[in-house]
Amino acid sequence: MHESSVATLPEPAVDLAPVNLRDLGGLPVDGGVTRTGVLLRSDDVSVMPAAFAQKMVDDGVRSVIDLRSPEEALRTGRGPLTVPGVNYHHLALTASVSMPEDISRELLSASATPELVGSWYANLLETQARQLTLGVTLVAMSEGATVFHCAAGKDRTGVFAAVVLSLLGASPKTVSADYAVTATRLPQLFPRLRAIMGGLIPEVPVTMQTAELGAMMGAHAASMDAMQQVLAERHGSVIEPLRRAGLSDATIAQLRNRLVVAGG
User: Of 15, 145, 200, 210, which sees the most CB atoms within 10 A?
Assistant: First the structure.
């Protein structure tokens, strides 16, 4: 998206700080732990307060990777991180708004299992391997910190985080545990998403437990366990689809150099 198009984008519907923003630093990987202050995952950053965005820039954010669909990106735009010195990269992982159209009714039902969700994540990773490879390359080459996000910071963001952590040699348990942190943010996340997206996001009664909503509306470690198992069975590893899509050993080494520090 070109800078000249920013002025034509719709104004954000709300002005809220992200509730699922977190640093991927301090996680155990091969050779040490992930470096803090270099890679952050988040829910939608486009509607954050300007002061919050400025604090992120002051803390070193220099790149934004937007994993939302084109429709979502147009709905709320790029937001206050659209400032000189911050690069924006739109790498849509789904074609349609927040709940992609290729998600079946079964997957969105209360009876959806973590295995079903994990299978969908695996399919997403396979079909979007080129986009994910480009995203990994951008992280490896970026100066300063990078924040990557979708709408909730759970599904598409979770798959991207799993790819990065797997490339760094994190264990499957570590990958799944990072994904499951989002479960603690869901009570704040659902109202925020509805404020931004309106009727496009189903209303979740405050009295309803996430376990009653089905696995797709939750953030169960078992869902990410299932994704990793499916990809291991199909390809031998989570990262093999990206290698087939062109991810090189040199880029992986560059990623490790940026994100891994000795310690633990």
Answer: 145
Distances (CA, A) of 49 to 15, 55, 81, 224: 5, 10, 10, 31
Q: How far is Cα 189 from Cα 17, in angstroms, rounded to an integer?
A: 11
For the entire predicted model, the pTM comes to 0.88
Q: Which SS3 state, helix, strand or coil, does residue 248 take?
A: coil
Q: How many residues does the chain have?
A: 264
User: Burial level of 53, CB count in 10 A (0-12/13-18/19+)?
Assistant: buried
From the CB of residue 17, how many other CB atoms can be counted at a distance below 10 Å?
15
Task: Tell me the per-residue pLDDT of 167-222, one tens digit each, with 9 for 90 and over.
Answer: 999 999 999 999 999 999 988 887 777 766 655 455 555 444 455 567 778 899 99
Which residues share a beta bridge with 145?
61
